Amino acid sequence: MKYLKILLNRRSLDTLIFFVTSKCNFRCKTCFYWKSLNRPGDLELQEIDSFSRSLPHFNVLLLSGGEPFLRDDLPEIIRIFCAHNRIKVVSIPTTAYFSDRIASAVARILLLDPGLQVNVRLSLDGLQETHDAIRNFPGSFAHCIKTHEALRALAKKHPLLRIGVNTTVCMRTIDGLDRLSDFVTRQLGIDDHSMEIMRGDPSDPACGAITDTCAEAALNTMIRSLRHRAGEGGTGFKKRFRTLLSAYCYSIQRDTYCHRAHWPFNCYAGRTIAAVYPNGAVAPCELLEPVANLRDHGYDFMTIMRSAEWKNTLEAIARRGCFCTHRCFIDASVTHHLRTLLAVFSRAVVQGITPKAHKGKGHSEK
Ligand code: SF4
Ligand code: SF4
Ligand 1: does its nearest atom lie under 6 Å from the Cβ of 280? Predict the structure, then answer.
């Protein structure tokens, strides 16, 4: 039902990516955003309230940063979106360094709305040595594990708190991905582990863009692991469908990255998903230049989305058949593609009937 609603809704906003602060306590070697970090001028609470009021109801608020938990008013910001936009899911990525601060903020966020799903995503790029080296900060791995323990204690009391892990894949991390994945699943007990191929200009060029061959191997591992998980007996239909859809999105990412293949569907950037930066700049997606700034338009998001400039940008995206490897936008766009949804739906049905046939090795990659 959720996917049917999204499928039919091709025009109004479903997901907002909000870079809630430019402040960050780390200097990660893989950071593509490092030149924009720690600038003054983050939107203040009153400004966030104003632009949230201008938006319709939408489903998913994907926060980003910087480190979102560095904002003392983070729970209040989320409360604003719950009140004005009736969001159903908020996702918060974190360096997971400040265990007590994070646990206390999450505990407050969980009290805002009993129906709000709160996804906290720990950024973990490797086991201890690799992670601390990438983060440029000894002890960051240990802090991340401590934060996970604090959040796990909260999750026992709050079923709508979901803990996930985000990993940025680069030449320095790629060799340890199997061990990391095993650690995340078996030691941390987390089955939501997403891997994002490093994009943009990293602060340490030695991290380098990963080669097509390495990317293909890493993404194929992810795809196999997701399909294996979906085929395990006892997995409910909803989870099986979501897992298979995620595997499909990884295959799109792989084909785009390694073979420069176009997506088999249109990108919905600027229509059902958009991005807001800490200083109020607004863009259809994170990879295109901002079109306008909320501060210059009376904090009216919808005025910007109805402007000629915005429409011209969307037309240019459609004209050139734009494609990239950004998972948020692949995920947001695939949900409008009926043929793909039906194919994944059928596969989920078949795997539910014959779970054992899909266990173990031997899956095709697409
Ligand atoms: S990757 Fe994230 S945590 Fe690391 S420096 Fe950049 S914004 Fe901060
Ligand atoms: S395909 Fe990628 S770069 Fe192009 S508009 Fe969509 S998200 Fe932006």
Answer: no
pTM attached to this predicted model: 0.91
* Tens-place pLDDT, residues 57-83: 999 999 999 999 999 999 999 999 999
27 lines ligand 1 (CB under 6 A): yes
CB 57 within 8 A of CB 81: no
Contact assessment for residue 207 and residue 220, using Cβ atoms and an 8 Å cutoff = no
Q: Whose CA is nearest to atom 7 of ligand 1?
A: 66
Q: Is residue 206 in a domain?
A: yes
pLDDT above 70 covers a percentage of the chain that reads 93
* Cβ–ligand 2 contact at 291 (below 6 Å): no
- Ligand 1 atom at minimal distance to the Cα of residue 37: 7
Distances (CA, A) of 325 to 236, 259, 340: 29, 11, 18
Q: Decide if 55 is inside a domain.
A: yes
Residue 364's pLDDT band (cuts 50, 70, 90): very low
Structure tokens at 86: 């009736």
Q: What is the mean pLDDT of the chain?
A: 90
Q: Does the beta carbon of 323 sit less than 6 angstroms from any atom of ligand 2?
A: yes
What is the extent of the structural domain holding 273? 2-210+266-336
Q: Is 245 part of a structural domain of the chain?
A: no
Q: Which residues pair with 92 in a beta bridge?
A: 120
Q: Of the bound ligands, which one is closest to the alpha carbon of residue 25?
A: 1
